[in-house]
User: Fold ABC transporter permease from Leisingera daeponensis.
Amino acid sequence: MTDKERFVPDEGMAPASTAVPGAAQLEELHNPPRSQWLNVWHQFKSHRGALMGGALFLFIILAVYLGPFVWDIEATKIDIRARNQGPSWAHPLGTDQLGRDMLARMMAGGATSVSVGLTAMLLALGLGSLLGVLAGFFKKLDGPLMRLTDLFLALPLLPLLLVMMLLFREPLNAAFGPEQGIFILIVVSIGVTSWMPTARIVRGDVLALKEREFVMAARSIGTTNSGLITRHILPNVLSPIMVSATLGIATAIITESSLSFLGLGFPPDFPTWGRLLFDATDYLQQYPERVFWPGLAISLTVLSVNYLGDGLRDALDPRIRGR
Assistant:
């Protein structure tokens, strides 16, 4: 056999250097792998309830914070001659017993309620995440911190809030004024009594993560504990933290509304959605729409935040993503 015959390829076989790539390779070349956040967004936008909830919550945020710049009637302006009026062009949601515009009071009350919800959520999220990471990462702190968490979970929430209001209301009002003082008191009270679920969720994820191979490899090359927590642990527990954040907003808004409805929230001339409900109970039979509007606003806000949290959970959890 000659050298020429020895190196002639079989008929029907293309040389290795001229092989045509398959469809999968072509698709990979034309569609490079997406980043993690693009995958999260792709999964999130496939959840219709989450999209609708996010759009509704964004609309509520814009309405309560930017609405007063468009509707320039002051929420505290009293006009006795226009009291107890129904919906009209001048007052689309009518007026209350003192002639105050209900649309303006709804926007001002919404800004206060949403601000309380966001600020209390940030406080509870920071406290719960800190304690959860410490309990899950350091074995010596796990027992004491979890027993502290169990203690707070065993306390009745509403009576504890009422006691805190009675004890600290007057000192804070004297130090910061009636409006800022009660805002600080409500935010701190809700924040320090709602961090426990976040701490438990974060602790469970940290316990699983610190035994993973990439954490052990980072520890083997001399990475400090603070470096392990900030670079490897916290980025991987972002999913439960963000879900807890969305649900914490709803819980804080409902708690603030409950306190205001009981008359222990903000002053009477400082509107919130809960305070509007409290003021409208005396006129429920004559003017039921005064209860309907703030109740509807609270319900839609909580519902939108819950749907938003449900979509974020599905999008951020790699075990659920792609189902």
Remarks:
- Residues 277 and 291 are 5 Å apart (CA to CA).
- The radius of gyration is 28 Å.
- The chain has a mean pLDDT of 82.
- DSSP finds 14 helices and no strands in the chain.
